[in-house]
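S1.2 Input.
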Amino acid sequence: MAAHFPDIAATVLREANFSLPLSFTCTVNDKGSVSLLGTNYHTPASAYTSYFAPLTTRLNKPFPVGNSPWDLFRPAPNVIQLLIHSILLNVLPSYDDQLFPSLHRSIQNARGVSILTARYLHPDPECREQKRATSVVVSVAPADASALLPSLNLFC
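S1.3 Output.
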């Protein structure tokens, strides 16, 4: 499948008069998930989204899997996770579900960036209890990562 699907995908797109590059690589993991990657890094995955249904249909023809057909193609998650160290615990919320709103507001104010997720690096509250500061992991869109690097001061 990994050897033949890039050519099948290019054929589907060529038949649809797709004008962007038709060169792909394909990998299939041990659970059967297919990753189709365009080799031209300047072509965004969103350029292919209207072709996901025909690509999936064509994938199901030469590689049928019985009563469980291949799911519709979809873009892979596209976020960057950043680690923020040494945040004083006394300025962070006590409850995990309050971490995102608190960090979102502070990072938005500090750098104008909207984070997508936030979590403690060490999720066990008892592990953090004995410490003065902790680390958190935030997810941001790739375009926003540079605004938070190389460092970020929060809360004081």
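S1.4 Remarks. The first strand starts at residue 24 and ends at 28.
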